[in-house]
Every structure is written in structure tokens, then in C-alpha cells.
């Protein structure tokens, strides 16, 4: 008879587990091809081995499977067609029953911003910061918002705080169009230097949290469903 410990080893397939690591070396069935009816059809949510994805067909009819959350701001890619008001309503309903849901709060901020409500976005980002004072994500998102609404100096200060909390993405500092006004400020070169230094330091593999949710989260597979 299997021990409880061995049973857990054999049956757990989420990120960071032994069997999960094994299965991630092989293709896995995700959904039927006909569930994606044609080019630019509505996306389909998929859950595989404890991770959430979005399946879609592009304008050429090619099938893709993406991590359900944007690696930049964790926005839900299910709403990637630009229906930000609908997305905001979805997150507001989630927060009505789970007010301490950090990810939903952060995504509500992103949706409010894209829906044209910067004040609402600020409130959600600040609420997310209160929920997770150890995370750089709310500060980074708020910095992007402020940089695009005429507040580059406080935006730079938020990026400074983000660095103190482990921000390590010089590519975002250098390439995010939201931060164009910050890149014109005198403190930008030092912010970039520090982000580059942070990126060079070794870090553990991300788990279920800040930026990634295991190796499978970072895959984009074309042709995964027919």
C-alpha cells in the first residue's frame, strides 16, 4: 500500500511537483479543435495541471494557447479583445465576495485604466498595495498610470520603491511606452542601472505568485488543438 507521502508524489501535478515536472515534458490534450469554431472566435478558458490558460484562434485560424495572465501586469487575457468594462465588472463581482483577492484587485485596476477611469485604477492599485505590501507589481502599475497622466516625478519615486521590493525588469524600464516621461527624467539612468543589477542576481524559480506560475505558464503553443 502506498504511503500518504508517496500518494501525494504520484497524484500532484501542479507547478513544482514531481509528476507535474514529468508531465510537462510531454504534450497534453487541452480541448477539442471544434471548441474554437473559427478565426477570431471567442477565446476558451483552459485549466491544465493546476494552471490557467486561454485558447484562441488568430485571424489566420491558427490555434494558440497562452498563459491566462499577461506577464506584464497580470491582466486576464480572456478579456484581451478590449472589452475592459466587462472585465472590470467581472473583477468587481469577484471582489464583492473576496475583497482580499490581490490578483483580482490588481486586474480591476488594469481594467479600470483601460476603460478610461484613471481615478478608479489608482484606487485599485493602492488597495492592491495594501493587500500585498511586499509586491512591486501595484507600485509599478501605479507608476505607469502616473507617468501617462502628467506625474512623472512621483512615478519615478514609485519605481524606486519597486526596486526596493525586488523589481528586476530593465526591459520594462527601457521599453514600456507608459514610462516614456520617466525616461526623460534625470533619475532614470540610475533606476535602469539598479534594475539591470537586480536582473543579474540569481533568483529562485517563480512559483504560484508574483510573476509566474511554473514552467508551463511561460509556454505559448501554436497548433495545440488541431
Folded structure, characterized:
With 226 residues, the protein is an alpha+beta fold. Among the domains are: 33 residues, no CATH class; 67 residues, no CATH class. It is built from 10 helices and 4 strands, in the order H-H-E-E-E-H-H-H-H-H-H-H-H-E. It has a 4-stranded antiparallel sheet with strand order 1-2-3-4, with no helix packed on it. It is globular, with a radius of gyration of 19 Å.
Topology:
Elements (H helix, E strand, L loop, with lengths): L3 H8 L6 H6 L20 E5 L2 E7 L5 E5 L16 H14 L4 H13 L3 H14 L5 H11 L4 H13 L5 H6 L4 H4 L4 H13 L20 E2 L4
Antiparallel strand pairs: 1-2, 2-3, 3-4
Describe, in short, the structure shown.
The protein is α+β, with helices and mostly antiparallel strands and 226 residues long. It has helices at residues 4-11, 18-23, 84-97, 102-114, 118-131, 137-147, 152-164, 170-175, 180-183, 188-200, and strands at residues 44-48, 51-57, 63-67, 221-222.
Amino acid at each position: 500500500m502506498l504511503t500518504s507521502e508517496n500518494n501525494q508524489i504520484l497524484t500532484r501535478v501542479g507547478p513544482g511537483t514531481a509528476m507535474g515536472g514529468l508531465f510537462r515534458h510531454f504534450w497534453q490534450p487541452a480541448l477539442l479543435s471544434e471548441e474554437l469554431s473559427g478565426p477570431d472566435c471567442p477565446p476558451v478558458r483552459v485549466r491544465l495541471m493546476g494552471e490557467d490558460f486561454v485558447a484562441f484562434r488568430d485571424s489566420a485560424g491558427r490555434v494558440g494557447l497562452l498563459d491566462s495572465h499577461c506577464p506584464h501586469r497580470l491582466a486576464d487575457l480572456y478579456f484581451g479583445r478590449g472589452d475592459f468594462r466587462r472585465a472590470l465588472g467581472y473583477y468587481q463581482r469577484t471582489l464583492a465576495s473576496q475583497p482580499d483577492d490581490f490578483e483580482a484587485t490588481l486586474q480591476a485596476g488594469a481594467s479600470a485604466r483601460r476603460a478610461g477611469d484613471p481615478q478608479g485604477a489608482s484606487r485599485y492599485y493602492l488597495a492592491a498595495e495594501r493587500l500585498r505590501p511586499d509586491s512591486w507589481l501595484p507600485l509599478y502599475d501605479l507608476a505607469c498610470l502616473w507617468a501617462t497622466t502628467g506625474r512623472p516625478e512621483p512615478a519615478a519615486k514609485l519605481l524606486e520603491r519597486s526596486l526596493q521590493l525586488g523589481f528586476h525588469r530593465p526591459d520594462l524600464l527601457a521599453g514600456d511606452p507608459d514610462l516614456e516621461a520617466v525616461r526623460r527624467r534625470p533619475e532614470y539612468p540610475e533606476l535602469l542601472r539598479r534594475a539591470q543589477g537586480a536582473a543579474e542576481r540569481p533568483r529562485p524559480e517563480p512559483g504560484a505568485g508574483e510573476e509566474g506560475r511554473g514552467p508551463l505558464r511561460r509556454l505559448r503553443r501554436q497548433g495545440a488543438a488541431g
